[in-house]
Amino acid sequence: MSPTHASRETDARAWRDQGRRPTRKDQYEAVEATVPRAAGAGATLGEEYPQA
After folding, report:
1. Of 28, 30, 27, 49, which is closest to residue 39 (Cα–Cα)?
2. Lower CB density within 10 Å: C or N end of the chain?
3. pLDDT, tens digit, 9 for 90 and up, residues 2-44
4. Does residue 44 contact residue 25 with C-beta atoms inside 8 Å?
5. CA–centroid distance for 42 within its chain
6. CA distances from 42 to 20, 38, 45 (A)
7. What is the pLDDT of residue 43?
8. Taking the mean position of all CA atoms in its chain, how far away is CA 21?
9. 30: closest CA among 15, 8, 5?
10. CA end-to-end span of the chain, whole Å?
11. In contact, 15 and 21? CB cutoff 8 Å
């Protein structure tokens, strides 16, 4: 089992314990926390791909 999968399992359990379903925002934040940023961390699309 990958560490990412393990952390998602833990997150899901925590949300269940709180008696609520994970929202889109929760899911987005969970993915953001586990996905490593590409070079130029936090850059917007415009910064990563400047128009010629």
Report:
1. 49
2. C
3. 555 666 677 777 767 777 777 788 777 777 766 665 555 555 5
4. no
5. 13
6. 30, 8, 9
7. 52
8. 16
9. 8
10. 43
11. yes
On whether the CB atoms of residues 8 and 30 are closer than 8 A, the answer is yes
Compute how many other C-beta atoms are within 10 angstroms of the C-beta atom of residue 34.
14
Handedness of CA 31, 36, 40, 42 (dihedral sign): positive
Structure tokens at 7: 């952390």
Residue type, 30: A
Say how many C-beta atoms besides its own lie within 10 A of residue 29's C-beta: 13
Backbone dihedral region for residue 50 (phi beyond 0: left; psi -120 to 50: alpha; all else: beta):
beta
Q: Residue 50 pLDDT > 60, yes or no?
A: no
